[in-house]
Design brief:
5-stranded parallel sheet; alpha/beta; binds 3-phosphoglyceric acid; binds nicotinamide-adenine-dinucleotide; Rossmann fold
Length: 390
């Protein structure tokens, strides 16, 4: 029996992935945590927790570094909400070009105008004259799951699209339309584009990339869209650039009190992933990642440990989280050899400073021998966690 603790509301379809062997939100010692944007940084995470799945993309709400040191596997759900975000970004591109947000607000103010409404509309509409997006230049910073979709669809709508991503994955590169031009630097995007949209994770490197220096080299009246994270922008600098009219609109999914008071800033209440489809996709994917890890030790879509998938055929399985240093596998297999135990299958993967090893052994080993091996693997210098499955 496993226990899952949830933070945030999780789509029922995702919770349904947890069958009878699971309890949700009961007891003090959960095996895994499932959450969306809830801030885990200040939470005490019990040592019973082996895995944390973020039903979504961004993991900046999770203390990943600390959890890695504790051998807790953190997952996210790559691409599961990308279409939802893309649709909102494309809508916002058009809405900002056509001054739709303020036009809708103004039109509402005519309520109660009786028969005058049609003529008031005709007289007032000129204040909302917009521009078309066709043939305008869009810069996409970050071409991962969302950025690729935005770039391709904007290109289909007739925009001239350029994209910057120094770490683009092979998968994303395959998906990107050949009409999308490659920018070699972020500055190229800043200098040349009429619209700029950011689709990067919040990291030390991306924090504050939208700042005074970048605004300074941008075109006059640029539209900026930020559906990634609020901290990518330096608010002091944004306020000045909006006041000076350098930035025409800043559309963000991450309002702060200050941004809500800036003229030219349009804020949505973090709606990017809030569609029925995206919520279900993310919840199902996250729940499956947890189940697979707890039941088989396989790791798929982890942000802190190497993806390691070895078919589980019901044999006794040792899974070991350890430092990525020499002679770890040798020491583990040595312990098995001491007991004349045959290894049926094995996988060892690394990611940066950490590695993960799965060893399947033939069935029928006495319980006390298994326990002894488990204890001795844990004693190896550099080993963080050992689990025996089956
Ligand atoms: N508004 C929302 O509701 C919502 C929903 C989903 C994701 N997001 C945010 O959007 C981000 C992107 O989501 P995704 O699913 O596309 O993630 P992703 O991991 O698929 O793509 C991120 C891309 O950014 C690139 N990148 C990283 N550092 C970079 C840098 N310094 N310069 C340029 N590119 C860089 C990576 O190479 C990758 O291709 C998430 O991290 C999250 O913060 C917001
Ligand atoms: O990173 C993400 O996936 C988004 O910001 C979605 O967050 P949410 O699950 O809280 O809507």
């Amino acid at each position: 029996m496993y226990t899952i603790k949830t933070y945030n509301e999780i789509a029922q379809k995702g919770l349904d992935v947890f069958t009878n062997d699971y309890k949700i939100n009961t007891g003090e010692n959960p095996d895994a945590i499932l959450l969306r944007s809830y801030n885990l940084h200040d939470e005490l995470i019990p040592s019973s927790v082996k895995a944390i799945a973020r039903a979504g993309a961004g993991v900046n709400n999770i203390p990943v570094d600390r959890l890695t040191e504790e051998g807790v596997v953190v997952f996210n759900t790559p691409g599961a909400n990308a279409n939802a975000v893309k649709e909102l970004v494309i809508m916002s591109l058009i809405a900002s070009s056509r001054n739709l947000f303020s036009a809708i607000q103004w039109t509402k103010t005519l309520a109660g105008g009786g028969e005058q409404v049609p003529s008031l509309v005709e007289a007032g509409k000129k204040q909302f004259v917009g521009t078309e997006i066709t043939e305008k230049k869009l810069g996409v910073i970050g071409t991962g799951s969302i950025g690729v979709l935005v770039a391709n669809d904007a290109s289909s709508l007739g925009m001239d699209v350029m994209a910057y991503d120094p770490y683009i994955s092979v998968n994303a590169a395959w998906q990107l339309s050949r009409n999308v031009k490659r920018a070699m630097t972020m500055e190229e995007i800043f200098r040349e584009c009429d619209y700029i949209t950011v689709h990067v994770p919040l990291t030390e490197e991306t924090k504050g990339i939208l700042n005074r220096d970048s605004f300074e080299i941008m075109k006059e009246n640029v539209h900026i869209l930020n559906f990634s994270r609020g901290e990518l922008v330096v608010e002091d600098d944004l306020e000045i650039a909006l006041k000076e009219g350098k930035i025409k609109t800043y559309i963000t999914d991450f309002p702060t009190d200050r941004i809500l008071q800036m003229e030219g800033a349009i804020a949505l209440p973090h709606l990017g992933a809030s569609t029925k489809e995206a919520e279900e996709n993310c919840a199902v994917m996250a729940a499956k990642e947890i189940r697979e890890y707890l039941e088989t030790g396989n790791i798929r879509n982890s942000v802190n440990f190497p993806n390691t998938v070895m078919p589980y055929i019901g044999k006794k399985r040792f899974t070991v989280i350890h430092k990525n240093i020499p002679n770890m596998v040798g020491q583990m297999t040595g312990l098995l050899a001491n007991h004349q135990i045959n290894i049926a299958n094995m996988s060892n993967r690394s990611k940066g400073a950490w590695a993960y090893t799965i060893i399947d052994v033939d069935n029928g080993i006495p319980v006390e021998v298994v326990r002894n091996i488990e204890e001795n693997i844990l004693k190896i210098d550099g080993v963080k966690r050992v689990r025996v499955i089956g």
